[in-house]
Amino acid sequence: MSASMSVALDGGIIIPSALGLAGLGVLFGLALAVASKTFRTGTDPRIEEITDLLPGVNCGSCGFPGCSGYAEALVKGTAEFGLCSPCSTDAVAKIAALLGKEVAASEKKVAFLHCAGGKVAKRSFLYDGIQTCAAANLVAGGDLACEFGCPAFYDCVRACPFDAIEIDEIGMPCVNARKCVGCGVCVEACPKNLFEIVPEKKTILIACSNTERGKFVRLVCDIGCIGCAKCAKTCQQNAIEMQEGLAVIYYDKCTVCGECLAVCPKNIIHNFADTAPSSSTSHDEKAA
Amino acid sequence: MSFSAIFAILISVIFVNNFVFARFLGLCPYLGVSKDTSSAIGMGMAVIFVMTMASIVTWPLYRYFLSPFGLERVLRTTSFILVIASLVQFIEMLLQKVNPALYKALGIYLPIITTNCAILGVAVLNIDTFFKDGNPLPGSYLGSIVQAFGAGLGFTLAMVLMSSVRERMEMANIPRSLQGVPIAFVTAGLMSMGFLGFSGLVK
Which residues contact A17 (CB under 8 A, 6 or more apart)? Predict the structure, then answer.
């Protein structure tokens, strides 16, 4: 060690080493400069610009490998506009301008969870396994008494790339419509298929997925759709249809009049327009 | 250089003196990129590639540039980093042009590991092993390349083992306070102790 120190401190070594390193640096710098010219790949600069305009979360809702993949497909012309649901309309307009195309304004969509049971819903057995919805679902469809309901192990919360799914006071995951961009990652994540991507403006939602007849629904849940069809009869637009024992809203017909809310005996039809976006499952706040 | 000597170098650097388990080099990608096996393998391949390339260029640099000018003591680390970084940068450009598929597979890992301590470690280790008083031992160029390749293999082995264990741990009921990196550190320590069993196998 002392030998190397004495060499390092010797003035005679400084100049050759500095010159040597500078020489190496210049040599490699020049070589890289030449290489970058020689090996330049002819990429379209618009691909990079569009990638910057896209949200950059790589959620995959467009069906392409990440945002850069979608940008490439857009420039090549093999992809359509509006596939990127997290994209703001502003950014879509900019991208369209970049490519010299026109694009129709798309409607913002958000995810909605068709269940309101949460941790307080009835359980049929004690589940003590891996604490994920996917794992619990493998054990006889989960510990929840209702075989359609939310297992409440929060696979969706973990899957959401935008932190838009929150857990409310009864342990129910609920979508924060302000953060949600409707990318559909939660739809894939939920083993019970409870999420639906709905237009944000159509705020009337049915918080149940149980298609059983009323008697069997009552056995497993206090707040399930019993299939009484009162809402379907009330709706003047014929926007609600009974599918087996479950009321389903068709959003192309729904006018958000709110008449169905008043007649539902189980109070499971909600209007979220007036409530805070985070409290999407509060049962008492259902002002029409 | 005989076959048995090459074999001994490989066994030594893969098992006995594994870069991760015995020398504790390259721990950053070892813990950072070992969450799933596919990315661990990608990282391992990139490390094998860069280590081999690095030893191919640093040996001549030391033998024909640093040694003759008496700069080997002061400039070794600095010039090695410079050369390796430039080389990897160059290869990245070359790959992007010549083989885009390979570039997509290795592309994201190459810049991360360019100046990794394991890469520099293998270059410096080659010099320490195969040079005596600034003069190369017989068969040292081939030996250093084999050693670098083996070091990459050993690193890949460590990455694959670790990622496989971590994939299994995803399903385990781990106490909340130990989830994530803490349990990974505990695992890494236990695996390192396991590899102590190879010590003394090769001189």
Answer: B71, B74, B75
- CATH class for domain A109-271? alpha beta
Q: What is the pLDDT of residues B168-193, one digit of tens each?
A: 888 888 888 998 889 999 999 999 99
Residue ranges per structural domain of chain A: 45-99, 109-271
Contacts of A17 in chain B (CB under 8 A): 71, 74-75
- Is B70 an interface residue toward A (CB < 8 Å)? yes
Read off the DSSP letter of residue A170.
Answer: T
Question: Taking CB atoms and an 8 Å limit, are A32 and B173 in contact across chains?
Answer: no
Contacts of A4 in chain B (CB under 8 A): 73
Domain count, chain B: 1
Q: B64 is in which domain, residue-wise?
A: 37-152
Structural domain contains residue B136: yes
Across the interface, do A36 and B73 touch by the CB < 8 Å criterion?
no
Contact A41 B97 (CB under 8 A): yes
Going by CATH, does the domain composed of A45-99 fall within 1.10.15.40? yes
Work out whether the CA dihedral B146, B27, B109, B106 comes out positive or negative: positive
Query: Mutating which of A1, A5, A6, A13 best tests the B interface, going by the most B Cβ atoms within 10 A?
Result: A13
Interface touch A32/B78, C-beta < 8 Å: no
User: What are the tens digits of pLDDT across the range B42-94?
Assistant: 889 889 989 999 999 999 999 998 888 888 888 888 899 998 899 888 888 88
Say if A39 is an interface residue toward chain B (CB within 8 Å): yes
Is there a domain that residue B93 lies in? yes
pTM for this model (two decimals): 0.61
